[in-house]
Design brief:
This protein is α/β, with parallel strands linked by helices. It has a domain at 180-252. The chain has 15 helices and 14 strands. An 8-stranded mixed beta sheet has the order 8-9-10-3-11-12-14-13, with helices on both faces. Strands 2-1-4-7-6-5 form a 6-stranded mixed beta sheet. Helix 6 crosses helix 7 (205-218). The longest helix has 18 residues, at 267-284. The radius of gyration is 22 Å and the shape is globular. The chain binds iron/sulfur cluster.
Length: 464
């Protein structure tokens, strides 16, 4: 099945494979997103340069939804995932932005454990929350039920390391490309799953063993009773990745971040893992962030897609729309590069050139040197994320060609004015863009540079 056909087929069944209404709307009530990322900026500081690996991106992930992040190596996909997980190692720092996580069990657990850093914002408008909370609060409770938090969020960028450790493998679990980085070679697979069950569900002894077997069966590992006693080296690559997924499920996460989980696997096993993730998502209502460089894989699994380039989200849309009517020249280039797309060609099509290292605040389009549609203003105006046309809904692109229903001059002016307003802080607060954060003052504590009202400025990329 072609990539765009696969995306359309997924759209028909909706997030997690659930049926949709005749207009394609999910039948279930859509609540606040499980994860909201706004104006995330993560940079690496070396003696020679500052690398702005993630430069002002934003996106949402709703319950039961799979959001894909796609782009070439060096586009900032994995740094995005590590920023959400609180796993950015020095010399990297999350400089600015907001990462709200709304897993209910996590909210309750952290509000209980960090009651001194929990703010009661029930009935307080979002714009007034900064006044209702202390500077070091990171748990925000919006609704209470019998003295227990019933709704609210954890602001990950403000959370202390102790809280982030509880988040990792608890409310949020992550699967990496190489399962051996997650599995300890000197312990049996069963013992590693049981350790996760002990930590997160309090299970011990035979109850933990039985649940470990259940989890191995849930990820379709045959002969689970025997396999639970084996070591990682006795598993094939595909089985190891299944075992890692079982470990992640042991933590009962609300959000699963998958960073190139199928890249090291052959295509048959890759298809099995994708199907497994889809089944698990449908059963458990998991939200998934799926990171890959492979457009074919994204078409297979994602409900919504963010295309990243040089630290920015350059296009975002529902998967069928992105594959059926791609707008940004970079997205088009990625799709044209899918093997088999042009069977009559002698050679595979590629995007000439490499992803640049984003080490300075953008004053132009970072894709311009590789763009077949570049024109003079692309060298002097930084494109921001705009609706691709008046009827676009939430299909956005960061390209001076859009909105496509305006004249070229009007479109360019739209971008010029919006970029200037982000840089100057209009509508975004005093801190303005991350240009100050990464370009002049060096690393600061994440989340401390927010605008009035506690909402950080959004400079570009992704959902408004
Ligand atoms: S802004 Fe210009 S260079 Fe950048 S993608 Fe659009 S047309 Fe190409």
């Amino acid at each position: 099945m072609a990539a765009d056909d696969r995306a359309t087929d997924r759209a028909r069944t909706g997030p997690g494979g659930r049926d949709r209404g005749p207009d394609g709307d999910a039948l279930r009530t859509v609540e606040r997103p499980t994860l909201s990322v706004r104006n995330l900026q993560t940079a690496f500081f070396t003696d020679k340069e500052t690398i702005r690996a993630v430069d002002g991106i934003g996106f949402d992930v709703r319950e039961g939804e799979t959001v894909g992040i796609v782009g070439e190596s060096g586009s900032g996909k994995s740094v995005t995932a590590r920023s959400i997980m609180g796993l950015v190692d020095s010399p990297g720092h999350v400089l600015e932005g907001s990462i709200e996580f709304r897993g209910r069990a996590t909210l309750r657990r952290l509000a209980d454990r960090f009651s001194g850093r929990t703010a009661d914002v029930a009935g307080v408008e979002e714009a007034d929350r900064a006044g209702a909370a202390d500077d070091d609060d990171f748990v925000f409770v919006e609704e209470w039920d019998d003295g227990e938090p019933a709704a609210g969020y954890v602001e990950i960028t403000r959370a202390p390391e102790k809280a982030r450790r509880r988040l990792r493998g608890g409310g949020i679990a992550m699967i990496f490309q190489d399962p051996l980085t997650s599995l300890n070679p000197v312990y049996t697979v069963g013992n590693q799953i049981k350790e996760a069950l002990r930590l997160h569900q309090g299970l011990k002894g035979s109850a933990a063993t039985d649940e470990a077997v259940n989890l191995l069966e849930a990820v379709s590992i045959p002969d689970a009773h025997r396999r639970v006693t084996e070591y990682p080296h006795q598993f094939s690559g595909g089985m190891r990745q299944r075992a890692v997924i079982a470990m992640a499920l042991a933590c009962e996460p609300d959000l699963l971040i998958c960073d190139e989980p199928t890249t090291a696997l052959d295509v048959t096993i890759q298809a099995q893992i994708l199907e497994l993730l889809g089944d698990i998502q449908e059963e458990r209502g998991l939200s998934i962030v799926f990171i890959t460089h492979d457009m074919g894989v994204i078409a297979e699994i994602a409900d919504r897609v963010n295309v990243m380039y040089a630290g920015e989200i350059v296009e975002t849309a529902a998967a069928p729309e992105l594959f059926g009517d791609p707008k940004h020249p970079y997205t088009r280039g990625l799709l044209e590069s899918i093997p088999g797309r042009h069977p009559d060609d002698d050679r595979l099509r590629t995007i000439e050139g490499d992803v640049p290292t984003p080490n300075a605040p953008p004053t132009d389009c970072r894709f311009a040197p590789r763009c077949p549609e570049a024109f003079a203003e692309c060298e002097t105006v930084h494109p921001v994320s705009v609706a691709v046309n008046d009827d676009a809904g939430d299909h956005t692109a960061a390209c001076l060609l859009y909105p496509e229903d305006r004249s070229r001059e009007e479109s360019v002016e739209t971008h010029r004015a919006r970029d200037a307003s982000y840089a100057g802080g209009d509508g975004g607060g005093e801190s303005g863009s991350g240009r100050d954060a990464a370009g002049e003052t060096g690393p600061t504590e994440a989340g401390t540079e927010t605008s009035e009202g506690g909402e950080p400025a959004r400079r570009g990329g992704g959902q408004p």
